[in-house]
Amino acid sequence: MKSRQKKGLILVNTGNGKGKTTAALGMALRAWGQGMRVLVLQFIKGGWKYGELKAAEKLAPGFEIRQMGEGFIKGENDSALDEHRHAAQQALKAAGEEILSGKYDLIILDEILYALHFGLVSLDDVLALLAQKPEGLHLVLTGRNAPPEIIERADLVTEMREVKHHFTSGVPAQKGIEF
Amino acid sequence: MKSRQKKGLILVNTGNGKGKTTAALGMALRAWGQGMRVLVLQFIKGGWKYGELKAAEKLAPGFEIRQMGEGFIKGENDSALDEHRHAAQQALKAAGEEILSGKYDLIILDEILYALHFGLVSLDDVLALLAQKPEGLHLVLTGRNAPPEIIERADLVTEMREVKHHFTSGVPAQKGIEF
Q: Where does the record place a coiled coil (chains A, B) (predicted)?
């Protein structure tokens, strides 16, 4: 029988459904409960994620959420695309530094795949990030449209697929659920 | 424009992939951060979920995880099936009471769909639970094989689909990730 070995994993939550970021946060909570040090780096700043930010404050130290990046892109012709790109590059730089810092056991690169999909960061840069991951560190990447090269490199990939959504029946975003 | 309305939702996390319970926990964290009172009722006791249990302790009051049920079933001929059924029925009873108690804003019925799939609780009983949900309460149901009747009744359904898993390449369960 194989003895239990410690191995930092690369995990990907992708797909068009809900739960990509939320599952990453749940994982963060689980890891934190195990005494691990957790960093969430948000590549897309989401002002509505107020609940998590407040929770993270209460769980500090050892649970840190850093909001970087800009908000979601308003279509292909978003006039602020340069700002988005600049902000995402800053997040990428921070990710590179923290991955090598040895300060964390689990780092969540939230919506990095969204930034990748919109060309705010390059595939080469993201693959370079993964390549420098220290052995013991767990990395979680979230966002739609995970490209095959990332899936190839990952240990665990889950697709969150939308089966039914209340927005389509006119129910608006709910406090504690969507924000 | 529609004004923001408060409506308790029924959410379902299903599918063969990872992240059903984890996303529910992330949602619990988000809700808790918003000052909501959260109860997680585990229909299948999972001893390895040590991380969350410790985190929940730190987040108390307002974040409660109650382990009920027995462990996962060891195949169709599990000799302890009666015990499993009894434990799941107890969890169902507790769920019914807490749904009506007014003490929570979000209740997660973790792995209730697993219990349903193995016949530990009946579809009628679960539908009856949903029918008595007070307007403002959010309910989350997790587990594989959500039946159509539950999907029909739910507001938001997400399928977590396994695309790739490290177990299949021989990497064992990792602390902070799987337990």
A: none
Q: What is the CATH number of domain A10-161?
A: 3.40.50.300
Q: Which of A14, A24, A18 is nearest to A158 (CA)?
A: A14
List the one residue out of B63, B169, B41 whose CA is nearest residue A51. B63
Topology of the domain covering B18-161 = Rossmann fold (3.40.50)
- What is the tens place of the pLDDT at every residue in A119-162? 999 999 999 999 999 999 999 999 999 999 999 999 999 999 99
B139-176 b/e with 16+ CB inside 10 Å = b?
bbbbbbebeeebeebbbbbbbbbbebebeeeeeeebbb
> Looking at CA atoms only, how far is residue B136 from chain A in angstroms?
11
Alpha carbons A45 and A73: distance in angstroms, whole number:
11
* Domain extent listing, chain B: 18-161
Q: What's the rounded Cα separation, in Å, for the pair B104 and B126? A: 19
pLDDT tens-digit map of A22-65: 899 989 998 998 899 999 999 987 645 678 888 888 888 899 99
Task: Return the SS3 of B145.
Answer: coil
Residue B9 CB coordination number (10 Å) = 19
In the three-class reduction of DSSP (H, G, I as helix; E, B as strand; rest coil), residue A90 is classed as helix
Which of residues 63 through 102 in chain B touch A, CB cutoff 8 A?
A: none
Place of tokens 């892109």: A73
Burial label, A117 (beta-carbon count in 10 A; 0-12, 13-18, 19+)? middle
Q: Write out the two tokens for A34.
A: 């195990």
Handedness of CA A2, A5, A8, A11 (dihedral sign): positive
Of A24, A59, A172, the CB nearest to B26: A24
Between chains, do B161 and A165 touch, taking CB under 8 Å as contact? no
How many angstroms separate the first and last alpha carbons of chain A?
Answer: 45
Q: What is the ipTM of this complex?
A: 0.77
Q: What is the CA radius of gyration of chain B?
A: 16
